[in-house]
Amino acid sequence: MHPPPVVLPDSYLTLHYRIALASDAAIDSAVVDTFEDKPATLQLGSGQLAPPLESRLVGLVAGQRASFELAPGEAYGERNPELVQKLSRKVLFAENDHEDEFQPGDWVEFQGPNGAPHQRFAGVLRELNDQYALFDFNHPLAGQPIRFDVEIIGVL
Q: Which domains does the chain have, with CATH numbers?
């Protein structure tokens, strides 16, 4: 009988995973959770998961479950105050014609600079007034302690 395959830095995986704030133990507060749905498939090293999360998977074996706590800022970096920016209402509504539908807390996607079609970025609307829209372009989990639960189903 062969030993179960081990996850390597470039492995192709099938797995269940959950990413949640470490301070919130409730499963229903998870940001991502595949345990109740189809498992995920991903290629390590391709940028599908943050590198600190991927590094936790290396060395695990097929069939193994594990949980990891990542320190504030370790998984998605520290919060950068320069990524909180005011945009004119004109910029906001140039691509998004839903003026009446925007509310603080909305996740809004924009086309890259100079209309670059393959570059998109997103931010959370923090404030909208008559002069501007205030956006936070930090990753929503930046600067937060993270709990990362995994179950490795298969390793190729």
A: 12-76+144-155 (3.10.50.40), 81-136 (2.40.10.330)
